[in-house]
Design a protein that fits this description.
307 residues; alpha/beta
């Protein structure tokens, strides 16, 4: 598949509850596809979402007790014991004595120095005290997999998918491909305009036409930012509250206006006229599009661009 492993946090809470006592949070996933065994991949389900150990978040967004190793406010020993106890509990649910745990969360590492300064202290204390029975270091998924390969362990197989997914009772994350179809459709429309606008800019530049580079670059960047934001897993999927979806729609509308503006400037350069540029709604016919219908009725000439 081109990957050595996949690491995930979101599986159904009931599935995770069932897997933990059996030490089946790691498995070989073999989806039932035409590729057969060539499609298998090692899969690791994280212990505590993709968050840091409870009580050990030192980002500016957190209020957890800092690790202190000076004589006046010394607590590194008790903090280290808490972390060791936590990892010993985690070890009950995995097959080997090599564990992996995430550090950080959404919007974290705004102050990376603060994070690492605290972890440096507690990690040093743990590693300097072998009686605690734990060695801990910063690592990566690749290094974790390399260590795991040294263990002669057989992992269970999984052949179906992980849907439907619920994180709490009655809290199902479903409908990714069908929820809020209007937002999905609008995103598709603006996406087409975005691609067409980029092509028009290239053609105008190659043709030697003068376009306002600074203005065009700014508008195109704003379009790209809006399109990028809408690719978020809670945006295009529709798994957002109505107020958030309304904000996404506003964002797309502003991006669309930027695209029409750029496209209009370029068309006017091509045509050498001051002609206004209007767009039709997506999937609409000439009869349903007022600008086209009006031009046809009045017998006016028009430039028609289909994308």
């Amino acid at each position: 598949m081109g990957f050595d492993a996949v690491f995930m946090s979101r599986i159904d809470y009931q599935d995770k509850r069932r897997r933990m006592p059996k030490k089946e949070l790691e498995m070989v996933w073999i989806p039932e596809t035409s590729q057969g065994l060539d499609n298998q991949i090692f899969t690791h389900v994280t212990y505590n979402h993709y968050s840091p150990p409870p009580g050990f978040c030192f980002d500016v967004l957190c209020r957890h007790t800092p690790v202190m190793d000076d004589k006046r406010n010394y607590n590194v020993d008790s903090r280290a014991k808490s972390l060791v106890d936590y990892f010993k509990e985690q070890s009950k649910y995995y097959k080997t004595n090599i564990l992996m745990h995430t550090l950080g969360d959404d919007f974290h590492y705004r102050n990376a120095n603060q994070n690492f300064k605290n972890y440096d202290k507690v990690l040093k204390y743990i590693n300097d005290h072998p009686d605690l029975g734990v060695k801990i270091r910063y690592s990566t998924p690749v290094q974790y997999l390399e260590e795991l390969k040294t263990k002669n362990v057989e992992f269970p197989e999984k052949k179906d998918d992980f849907f439907p997914y619920a994180d709490i009772p009655h809290g199902y994350w479903t409908g990714f491909f069908t929820t809020r179809p209007a937002l999905k459709g609008y995103l598709r429309e603006v996406g087409k305009l975005f691609q067409a606008t980029k092509k028009a800019i290239v053609l105008a530049s190659l043709g030697g036409y003068e376009i306002a580079v600074n203005k065009t670059s700014y508008s195109l960047r704003k379009m790209a930012q809006s399109m990028g934001t809408l690719q978020h897993h809670d945006a295009v999927t529709g798994t957002s509250k109505k107020l958030v979806v309304d904000d996404y729609s506003k964002m797309l509308d502003e991006a669309r206006q930027k695209g029409v503006e750029i496209y209009g400037d370029i068309v006017r350069e091509f045509s050498g006229t001051n002609q206004s540029v209007l767009t039709c709604e997506w999937n609409s016919s000439a009869v349903e599009c007022p600008p086209v219908k009006q031009s046809l009725v009045e017998g006016k000439s028009m430039y028609l661009r289909v994308f």
